[in-house]
Amino acid sequence: MLPFDTLIPIDKSSGLPAYQQVTHLIIKHIRNGVIKPGLLLPGTREMAGILKLHRKTIIAAYDELTAQGWTSVIPRKGFIVSEDLPEIKPKQWDKDTTGYAFNSKMPGPFYPINKMGLLTPAPDTKQPNLIVDDGHPDSRLAPMVQLHREYRSRLKQQHVVKQVSVTLSAGTPKLREAMVTYMAQTRGLQMQTENILITHGAQMSIYLAASLLLKSGDYVIVGEPGYYVANQVFEHMGARIIRVPVDKHGIDITAVEDACQKYPVKALYVIPHHHHPTTVTLSPERRMRLLEMAEQFNFSIIEDDYDYDFHYTSSPYLPLAAGNHHNRVVYIGSFSKALSATIRIGFMIAATDFLRQAIYLRRIIDLRGDHVMEESLAALLSNGDISRHLKKVNKIYCERRDYLCTLLDTHLKDVVHYTKPDGGMAIWLVFDKRYPLSEISVKAAKYGLFINNGKLFDSPDVHYNALRFGFASLNFEEIKEVVEIITKTVN
Amino acid sequence: MLPFDTLIPIDKSSGLPAYQQVTHLIIKHIRNGVIKPGLLLPGTREMAGILKLHRKTIIAAYDELTAQGWTSVIPRKGFIVSEDLPEIKPKQWDKDTTGYAFNSKMPGPFYPINKMGLLTPAPDTKQPNLIVDDGHPDSRLAPMVQLHREYRSRLKQQHVVKQVSVTLSAGTPKLREAMVTYMAQTRGLQMQTENILITHGAQMSIYLAASLLLKSGDYVIVGEPGYYVANQVFEHMGARIIRVPVDKHGIDITAVEDACQKYPVKALYVIPHHHHPTTVTLSPERRMRLLEMAEQFNFSIIEDDYDYDFHYTSSPYLPLAAGNHHNRVVYIGSFSKALSATIRIGFMIAATDFLRQAIYLRRIIDLRGDHVMEESLAALLSNGDISRHLKKVNKIYCERRDYLCTLLDTHLKDVVHYTKPDGGMAIWLVFDKRYPLSEISVKAAKYGLFINNGKLFDSPDVHYNALRFGFASLNFEEIKEVVEIITKTVN
């Protein structure tokens, strides 16, 4: 007889009922060929003795196996393993997907990931101790304790939790109401709750806007260099991307006008505060001109104002969406920068009709967000915690920016060049061609530092050898350590 | 002179710097026409006196206004409001979206929402006290305190929080590893971390699978009646939907075969446990046959096994994805049912190549999930909290189901008919045609009860006058109250 006691070990601390464990293990052994077709299983009483289980448990397991077709009942003999098993080997998933007939050609670069799902700048990267991100906030400073206190208190309120079942995908009403006030106070935006959609991060708002505005073959204008993930969205829609230079005042509006005269442009994607990646701010004059051109050439503007809340030396400029927008602007922002990259709450502001379509699309993509978290955020917006936090971190981030600049000027003067940004969380750091970032990132990995390989922002024609150095999430000590490691890699 | 002290009230408790408040308010009044072009603003010293602010604050505000083009400096006179203002009226967002040239015709029904973003079964609905959802768990029973304890402890670990910046969108490695074990133990699925993608709810997995498998004009088979949000996804892809009857053993496989012989079917969407909405379980024989047909007719299977963890009288059947799947199955599930509808963590399991494309697409849709929450869930999976919780709630939900059935048999015998489901969180409750749910839902709303109007599951040709009565999220008292209200509405 097979050693059933070792083949079928029961884990009493597991949450799974014992009869299910028996069932699953027997199926597993049948599949693996350990228990063969035609085998007569021990009687229920005998098996109960072997496995030290109640006989009823074994009866339940055998019944289950029979119901699923793995065993058959032979009257007066017992249960035998079926001869005509539907499947006799364990089914692994292959690497090749011969089975699916699917669209396997996703546009855009596909970054290599290792087994752990991590982006790999180089094959020998260890799990890094230090990470240079491309502009994340320092969540150690964020009012996460307050946020989670609000969250916990709401978990006990059944009507809040149950609201998800009747609320559509626009976001929780309390957060949308709090946003009306907050957007008016901070950005001069005049709107109603009907104009706001809460999304799972700002990225989802970009995806929704692009889905609604662009179809295959349509023209869209973006800044170059630009935010590659937005470009990938436009490519996914099949849009034709017109790349327009970005100078120190933002996107080049003469080039935009030229493009509009040549092509029937459907949309323009613009990052007015701290253009991604170069961190420049779009000047007020250009903002006005873009709004006029949108009307003149009949295109829509996707305004991705992810960095509005972070300014160190001057006030931010009001959004295009606060200006003469002619219902042509889709305004996008996020709370991930104010709090933590893990808090995935973004928003879209647009005219009602457009927004209703976006709500429909958001719903079929992911139904809705975490409404309890949304209501918790609403509380922090209303009680001023978010504004106070922003005031505090603007001061700290400004100091970190200055500290990083000092270190760069001292240790990497001949290696990098940059323009100190007015705000935001990153410096656009261009490395001299003698120091390829592809090599630096590999060397840095050996010191436990992750920095990207400088290829993220490359367009088909240009290699920048540059990265966004996110200084906001690193304290002085960490900034110092990072610069020291980079200095080692270039010497 | 204008009453600047009342026009420009400064809120010292606000987080916004005073100079920004002054700037924004002056811009607001210029826009509203209160402060006219050509007006000479009070000198900085005078304005500081009026507003009881430091003179430096006023200088900063005036400089900012000038930088933004709202005022100009007249040497030796001061600051005047610019004559050539780019915009002079406040821009509201219109209802009509004349500005956007967008695809305004979303497919499928668009449910009316009221100003609060709530689905309105009737215009006079108050915010409901009681809600009958379509099968949500009772989050009051879920280990949310444990989950949030894990969350808080991770917030302090910078490397966990920072991991988001290097981790791609597949989900946190710890959760994917925990899933490999959990899926093998509970579902007999044999796979690696490379086969798992964590998504923002199961809905996102459906959207991703449909995006990859279907293009405009492709045929997809679904059960009828069926899960309307999945159907809306397929419609959005431009797919042609073939509706196949669902009987008490699940989707009708003869009808599936007929359809495959007539049309080049690309995909089949199946809900094996507790078909949505009718709650029937797909029999093991039909599972085998579907897998064979997928190979024979060259289609892929989207297996939406949202209800696998909830069985009251028997063990669940193993998924199609655990069988002879020929790399043709995309297996989809969620933790929203195990924990709370607010926890939006779903997953997709498929062959590696397919999954990598899904990861790419997920990334451009919403970058990633909340990795801290994902790691917290991983901890609860690994320490057995989830399994123990499921064991506990299966007992409680079973009792709630039985209690509801008793009440229905007692009070609504002639009004509704239903088949008691083996598991899951809802009963498919068909109302007699004499009692239209459209009327019942309106009446119920007056008693503070939200139930849907029975139209959600209608196909173009069929009106079911039925709803999914989610019993799991209601305790005995609440179930009793709901049945009492429904009873009142039909008498």
Automatic annotation (TrEMBL), chains A, B:
InterPro entries: Aminotransferase_I/II_large, HTH_trans_reg/aminotransferase, PyrdxlP-dep_Trfase, PyrdxlP-dep_Trfase_major, Tscrpt_reg_HTH_GntR, WH-like_DNA-bd_sf, WH_DNA-bd_sf
One annotated GO molecular function: transaminase activity
HTH gntR-type domain span: 16-84
CDD domains: AAT_like, WHTH_GntR
Official protein name in the record: GntR family transcriptional regulator/MocR family aminotransferase
Family, per entry: In the C-terminal section; belongs to the class-I pyridoxal-phosphate-dependent aminotransferase family.
Alphabetized UniProt keyword annotations: Aminotransferase, DNA-binding, Pyridoxal phosphate, Transcription, Transcription regulation, Transferase
